Each structure stands twice: as C-alpha cells, then as structure tokens.
Amino acid sequence: MLEIKHTICPSCSVGCGLNIVSKDGAVVGTYPYKRHPINEGKNCSNGRGSILQFENKINAPSLVQNGELVESDADSIIAAIKKELDAIDASELAIICSDKNTNEEIDAIKKFAEDFGTDKIGFYGYNFPKFSGEIANYNDINNAKFILAIGDIYGENPLAARRIVLAKDKEAKFFNIDDVEKSITALNADEYIQFSDKATFADAIASVKGELNEEAVIVLNKIADAEDFKLVEDLASETGAKLLPILNGPNSKGAMDKIDPLTKDEIIDLIDGSKVLIVVNDNLLDYLSESDIKGKAFIANISNFEDEFTKFSNVVLPGKAWVEKEGTFTNAEGLTQSFAASADLGEGLSEIEIFEKLA
Ligand code: SF4
C-alpha cells in the first residue's frame, strides 16, 4: 500500500516541506508538499535525492574492528561507552553534534553534557560564527529592490534562489560575489564579482556598498571565517540592508541558538583534548583529515549511515534516520517547524533514548 507522509527536507537550511512516499513500509520516493509556504509545491534535486542515502543505512549497533562493522546489540554498545566514560574525568569527554540534529535532540545531548560535567560540546558551523542579530525572511527577498548573494545560492539552495528570481521579475537588481570561476548564480546575476582571498573579498564587499540600502537583502551561504562574516554584518548594519545567512544543515540555526558552531581548528582542539569523543549524526571526514582523528580518542559514533568516518569509530549506534525522526528544525529565516516520523526503517533507539541510557 502506498503512503505519503509530510516532513521537512534534510538537505539544507531553507526548510522546504517534503513528502515521503512509502510502499509496504519501504521508502520509494519523494513528492513535493504542495501547500508548504516556503517551497509552494517544489523541491530541488538535492531535496528529492535525500532518500538515496538510505542505501548505506546502518541497521545494527556495532563494534568496529579493523575498519569493519561487527554487529552487536544496543545494550552491549551502551555498556562499552559507559565503561569508557567511567574511566575519564568530565573534561575529557567531547561531544560533536550536527546541524542535522533536531532541536529536541540537541536539548537532550546538551543536558547529558551538562550532567556529565563537560562543556566540550559543539557542531561544525562551516565557518559561520554564532550570530543572533535580526535576520531577513524569504518574503524580504521577494520584495527587495537589490539582492546581493554571496556564494552559489542557485546551485545549493534553489528554493531560496527562487525568491531571487521572483524579485528579478519585479526589476530587482542582483549581484553575486563568490570565489569560483562562474556558478549558476553568477550566470544569473546582473554583476558577478570574483574574489580570490581575504583582501579581494574585502574589496568586493566595499565595491557593492553604494548599491545597498534598507530595500536590499544580502543572502549568503558561504563565508571564510568570523572576520569575513563581520565584514558582511557591518555592511548590512551600515547600509540598512537585511541579512539572511543560509546555513548548511536543516537545523543549523536551531543548533546555533543552543550550542556553539565550531571551526575546523576548534574541533581539532576539542578532539586533541578528549579521551572519549561522541559524534552525533556527523561525518567528521567531510571537513577533517584522517590524521586529525585517527588514534586520538575512543570514538562513539551515533550514525545512521555507513561512510568513510565509520571505520575510524570504535563503536557505532545507528540512532534514527531523518525520515524516522520527529521533532523540530529551525530554518535559515528562524522559523521552527515541527514534523512527525514519516517512515519506519526498523527497530532501534532514537538519539534521545541513547543519551538517556548513557546518563
Ligand atoms: S532548497 Fe534546500 S530545503 Fe529546499 S528542497 Fe532544496 S535542499 Fe531541500
């Protein structure tokens, strides 16, 4: 029997609605959520392809021996992690969460860390620092007279780019700044400014200042570091333009409101200072090298999918895949959306249950 259930797309922080199509319990496809106010019946290929990762789903709690998963059971793996935790000081535990964790998962993980006594908790923020200032919403893009995009919004966040297209239809001017040769965003811009380093980025920011005012919106999905982000923030505050950072994961903004986004170097420091590392729904090798993690700590990997990081873990607990999760995500514009589980891929503990058992 075919079933269609609504959830939120896990593939970027725009926050589009997505329907999951299941047949006899197995996920077989996706379908756009017609009445969703953000994407209004459209999903990009990244969103529609989110279910492809189920091909690498980890089904059983496992030990990792010589890089291979050796199936075990949840009680044994939890006991193995607790044994490691019992042998360390509180400050020797580090926890790396993810921008894919729900707000409720992050609350549970944060509580576990506080009760254990460690403040070494964070998630990779893709170079974005914590920010809490006023942010624009998607309707601000629709109504803007001038839009500055930093990064490839058309390629990576197509349903936010759709708002730029709608604004351009109403004669909005559109500039793009990026460090690539020419992206699809650059090809659609009235003017493209390519930068190559921090100095030319600062020049690019300064060169557009005269175009910006309170009817302008700056949309960015890429930044080199906190210093460059400050340049963009200052550009917005000095001109009255609204600012909309579109972050990497579906709950980047929610995670950022609760715990610190960390840089690559900060995560390496955190790993270097720990004896036990719990990683929740993140592949550290997306942004670190093998030498940054290999042989440094006992790694408990709470992960739904087998990837290149799996073999560097000591134990793996599957948790729930994104279609099985329920909870809330806070999207780029700060909208918190709740969702129920849209599929059941098998038995297993949720991330929240795992941390309750570890406590
Ligand atoms: S724009 Fe982002 S949230 Fe929307 S469908 Fe595409 S990947 Fe998913």
Task: Please provide a written account of the structure.
Pfam families: Molybdopterin. Residues 2-58 form the 4Fe-4S Mo/W bis-MGD-type domain. It is an enzyme of class 1 (oxidoreductase). The protein folds into 2 domains: 62-126 and 252-321 and 346-358, Rossmann fold (3-Layer(aba) Sandwich), CATH 3.40.50; 138-245, Dimethylsulfoxide Reductase, domain 2, CATH 3.40.228.10. It has helices at residues 45-48, 74-86, 103-116, 138-143, 153-156, 158-169, 184-188, 198-208, 226-239, 252-258, 264-272, 290-293, 351-358, and strands at 2-8, 17-23, 26-32, 62-65, 68-71, 93-97, 121-124, 146-150, 173-178, 191-194, 216-220, 242-245, 260-262, 276-280, 298-302, 315-317, 327-330, 336-339. 31% of the residues lie in helices and 24% in strands. With 359 residues, it is α/β, with parallel strands linked by helices. Strands 5-4-16-15-14-6-7-13 form an 8-stranded mixed beta sheet. It starts with a strand and ends with a helix. Helix 3 runs parallel beside helix 13 (351-358) and helix 8 packs parallel to helix 9. The structure holds iron/sulfur cluster (SF4).
Name its key features.
4Fe-4S; 31% helix; Mopterin_OxRdtase; binds iron/sulfur cluster; 24% strand; Dimethylsulfoxide Reductase, domain 2; EC 1.2.1.2; Rossmann fold; globular; 359 residues; 18 strands; 2 domains; five-stranded parallel sheet; metal-binding; 13 helices; eight-stranded mixed sheet; alpha/beta
